[in-house]
Amino acid sequence: MPKNSKVVKRELDDEVIESVKDLLSNEDSADDAFKKSELIVDVQEEKDIDVEEESEVEDERPAWNSKLQYILAQVGFSVGLGNVWRFPYLCQKNGGGAYLLPYLILLLVIGIPLFFLELSVGQRIRRGSIGVWNYISPKLGGIGFASCVVCFFVALYYNVIIGWGLFYFSQSFQQPLPWDQCPLVKNASHTFVEPECEKSSATTYYWYREALNISSSISESGGLNWKMTICLLAAWVVVCLAMIKGIQSSGKIMYFSSLFPYVVLICFLIRALLLNGSIDGIRHMFTPKLEMMLEPKVWREAATQVFFALGLGFGGVIAFSSYNKRDNNCHFDAVLVSFINFFTSVLATLVVFAVLGFKANVINEKCIAENSKMIVKFLRMGNISQDIIPHHINLSTVTAEDYHLVYDIIQKVKEEEFPALHLNSCQIEDELNKAVQGTGLAFIAFTEAMTHFPASPFWSVMFFLMLVNLGLGSMFGTIEGIITPVVDTFKMRKEILTVICCLLAFCIGLIFVQRSGNYFVTMFDDYSATLPLLIVVILENIAVSFVYGIDKFMEDLKDMLGFAPNRYYYYMWKYISPLMLLSLLIASVVNMGLSPPGYNAWIEDKASEEFLSYPTWGMVVCILLMVLAILPVPAVFVIRRCNLIDNSSGNLASVTYKRGRVLKEPVNLEGDDASLIHGKIPSEMSSPNFGKNIYRKQSGSPTLDTAPNGRYGIGYLMADMPDMPESDL
């Protein structure tokens, strides 16, 4: 038999092939033809091989232009609308300044460790969420698909909110602002104020009737709202253009979209502090109610806010970090971004309550003026004696202190008759205690406050431009959480996939710009993300800590960072964080079970909100949202466990471990970047045929990816290597 066609047979054992030199040790030394072929044989230390492979992989994958651009991208993704309209509400509702303590504790216990974990796996494996979790364990590969599904659900309605912001932004270039006064209605005989507006307020009427033109229930579609449809289209066009080139295009926009909100918040804070009543709002905000810290509900809501504020489980964090160099200090990034997020929430809270304090002061002055007129009327009618009114008080120009003094005197003297007088105490705290969040804060309370600002159109333009930028920063991360893993897995062109994704999302998103669309936004917000994301992050924690092994993961971090992370993270990832996440999941399920599923509908005749339960089909949709979001996890597990799909098809990324090392099959260009040698039993395997240039360097072939245990593969490309057995995970 000619030497060039000689077959070398070697028994496969449980030891990892460390280099090509090991594999060639049994080859005949006279085989010059084979040894002169274009082999990738590195006789240096494995560390040298690692460096070479790492540089090749990094050259292939796009990278951030600078560390600042990357940090701004992560900050833009984590700092979103929730920091402005959710955190201040929770802070006021759950004990004011006392709420900050449980929030900080849970940020250290849940937030930073899990944020660090996602940054680490993304940077280490350099893949999107699908490739990362397939890389760690094929049976848990559904985690990445679940993240993509949740990202898609959230993107559907989140961009609708950006569309609302664009609508208000476009309407802010008017003096006076269109929501400043109630509209007048003319008929044949006379002119009168719109009844729906008169019963509520100008900003409330404008939001529900002019902007949303809302129906009375989720069952009444009412057709498309063309104004909001155009705004939604504009929002998706902006997102598509920004994301079409990946981080090369979105990264440049981050300089504006991530920094501009801070400029606006600081300007708002300075302006608000110069207005009457702003200090009252801030004082009310940060007055601690320590007794509330003992309530479990406060800790549950703080944990939920920490969880969603950092964008855990969406895949955006993993996607952004996958474009980093492997020696990047992601621990520093995790701590920095987490605390920037926290201080942004505190800054937004200061701004919100400084502005709401000013608004409460304006409303309180009107209240005092109206009630003072009523007291003067009662004095003239003789219902109240002039003798009980202190002589130094002039009711025509009464101050808040003097009014409260008169109010207390009348209440004591007219103890039995006082309720019939219908006088209001006009306490500024009563107005500040009317907690609002979400759209109620941004599009009603805050817009009303801005109508009292000098140069109100300017501040309205700034505010809604800030909201749009906050939303876009989060949208970029959310879309990246879809695009990156799908491109990594199925080798699609990023430009085509981005256009398809945005076009499909716009078409589905039309349900949110019906007249009943606001109710669907509430449904998706309540049911499409909360429980699925909690389950996803729990499984991420389990995959790293128990399936892969926390000890090996700590070694990986030491190899990647150049220093060993504090043992604090070891105990957090292995014991504390899983227990806390499970507790949070149970508490969320219990809370969801105790809260009747429904929504607040706007009733036109009453000009007020009314809680309505979802119809039967609405309940089915709610359940489907949760099931579809988490379905990929058990589906992929069953497929892997039962071998229902031939792994060689490349439809699902797969990995094969040999004692902690990962082998990759680069010729499968149609599969996942993380697709590795697929598993077969040893009896099905043939011996390597050297005559087919098994180890020849293939031009245009992908380079080896890194193994997740701190080493970078086995040191050579495998073009036609038969499948190797998959070990038990």
From TrEMBL:
Please give the NCBIfam families that the UniProt record associates with this protein: Na_transp (NF037979)
Q: Which UniProt keywords apply?
A: Amino-acid transport, Glycoprotein, Ion transport, Membrane, Metal-binding, Neurotransmitter transport, Phosphoprotein, Sodium, Sodium transport, Symport, Transmembrane, Transmembrane helix, Transport
**GO MF assignments:** branched-chain amino acid:sodium symporter activity; metal ion binding; neutral L-amino acid:sodium symporter activity; proline:sodium symporter activity
Matching PROSITE patterns:
NA_NEUROTRAN_SYMP_1, NA_NEUROTRAN_SYMP_2, NA_NEUROTRAN_SYMP_3
State the name under which the record lists this protein.
Transporter
In the bilayer, the protein is annotated as: Multi-pass membrane protein
What is one Gene Ontology biological process annotated in the Swiss-Prot or TrEMBL record?
proline transport
The record's annotation in InterPro entries points to: B(0)AT2, Na/ntran_symport, Neutral_aa_SLC6, SNS_sf
Where does this polypeptide localize? Answer: Membrane
Q: Which reaction does it catalyse?
A: L-valine(in) + Na(+)(in) = L-valine(out) + Na(+)(out); L-threonine(in) + Na(+)(in) = L-threonine(out) + Na(+)(out); L-proline(in) + Na(+)(in) = L-proline(out) + Na(+)(out); L-asparagine(in) + Na(+)(in) = L-asparagine(out) + Na(+)(out)
